[in-house]
Structure prediction request, 266 residues.
Amino acid sequence: MVQRRNTRQRTLVAEAVSALHTHPSANDVYAYVHERDPHVSLGTVYRNLNLLAEEGKILEVHTPGGSHYDFRTDDHDHVVCTHCGSVADAGVSRHRSIDDDVEVNTGYRVTGHFTVFEGVCPACQAKQAAQAS
Amino acid sequence: MVQRRNTRQRTLVAEAVSALHTHPSANDVYAYVHERDPHVSLGTVYRNLNLLAEEGKILEVHTPGGSHYDFRTDDHDHVVCTHCGSVADAGVSRHRSIDDDVEVNTGYRVTGHFTVFEGVCPACQAKQAAQAS
DNA sequence: ATACCTGCAAACTATTTGCACTTGA
DNA sequence: TCAAGTGCAAATAGTTTGCAGGTAT
Prediction:
């Protein structure tokens, strides 16, 4: 077991993810943190996001275009906008875990899975409608 | 409708994805193509992979660490190895599309979704077992 | 003929890392 | 004390793009 310390920076990063319920990117978290402590570096933000995700204290959401972070740590799926990259909870309840089936089929030792829906968010739909005049 | 041409390069890229049934990355495709025509550039490989995927002639598989390409164009899910990045078909049949539910829940105009399972491939499992001596 | 396409190299985005210094326990 | 953590800048990986010249139709 590795010994972990409670640093000011780590606390700030955790606080950012808790406060921002918008599925922030690493950069969004950096902006929040940087506002409160301009000395914190982006590298440190990444290091702490990875640590917190590893510990299961936050959830990492993989999307094309980069990772986002979620204060909700229960398994749930997400939608990502193919135009602006915004992320939202999918709001569908998860079907039974099929991880075991995949394990049998492929020989991979399966540790989990994630589903990402792709679409266009309401804001970008409005923008498109405005353009199509 | 854009006019598309049949170039030697585009044919080679399509051929590579058809021939390689290993869910190749852009680099793998580049290696295959480069072997038959050393003048073809990586940029061209990317441009053609994107075009072919857009046309639905090949499937783009998003994984953490980069895209992979699949000659199978029917909707199906994948497993990715968290150690070496190898990709395989998950081999599970897809549950009914819940895209519409997500659309209702979120307001996003949903165009599709993809599920990626994470795990450790048989080869990497063997490597781990050998180390743990 | 002329749009589409290509090679090449540079640019870009997201993320990681080496190193010397700081700091929590 | 001293290993874990940090800041900074440089490095890396994956992918895109501007431009000048090439080529399919």
About this structure: The interface with chain B takes residues 62, 64, 67, 77, 79, 81-82, 88-92, 95, 98-99, 101-103, 105-122, 125 of chain A (CB under 8 Å). Residues 3, 5-7, 25-27, 42-43, 46-47, 50, 65-67 of chain A lie near DNA strand C (CB under 10 Å from a C1'). The first strand of chain A starts at residue 59 and ends at 63.
